[in-house]
């Protein structure tokens, strides 16, 4: 199974949303990271054929997806960033409706819907109207509809947006469970959602793919570029040394994590620490919109 993008380009007037992207995806989880406007949603919509490329081509197992549209859609599951749920439908009605749109047989839809409702812990709510569900339940339902046709390719655009940490963890675990023998492309701003489950991280900046590496390889590239310091003085004193990654408290002490401008020049009393994927994000996207931090406050 191989999903390829060759010289993929999308422009809107003079704005380049995606710039000559070349990529090959085989089964595994691919975390797509980048600030707003980097081209993440554009890439996903091009793969799902919701928009057409200005130039370039998307191939699935060597075939142009536009020339084999229906066959490709049979292999595809898509969870968009914004909800496409119908509030007056029940959970079960919605899955049956999506199944009919996908051209699935009624018996197949019934069996698959029941299985997914069990796996997503929505079985007790299958007769409830969608408008009565919590945000976390609605996200799990969106995930279930993407999996309804047991797709080989799963496209997830900000699947955990707006969820609390517990619900994010639950959905992240579900994604990992279903990752066997599937190509999963997952876009997010929350790097902790993919740090543990992604086989490859794709860094997208201003429409260009700047890095494709396993999480461990990306963090290793920042070895000796990240330090930690027990600090209680004004943060401005650290500005000459580098960029602040995070600030956190341990017992009564406050620590600052710093991405160094020059690894040879450490702040007084600082020590090197092993980089995280958040550090990688800030290293490459510091001049863009900031990453979401769970611990960036005192």
From TrEMBL:
Keywords: ATP-binding, Nucleotide-binding, Transport
SUPFAM superfamilies found in the cross-reference section: P-loop containing nucleoside triphosphate hydrolases (SSF52540)
Every ABC transporter domain range: 3-231
UniProt xrefs under Pfam families: ABC_tran (PF00005)
GO molecular function: ATP binding; ATP hydrolysis activity
Entry similarity comment: Belongs to the ABC transporter superfamily.
Name used for this protein in its record: ABC transporter, ATP-binding protein
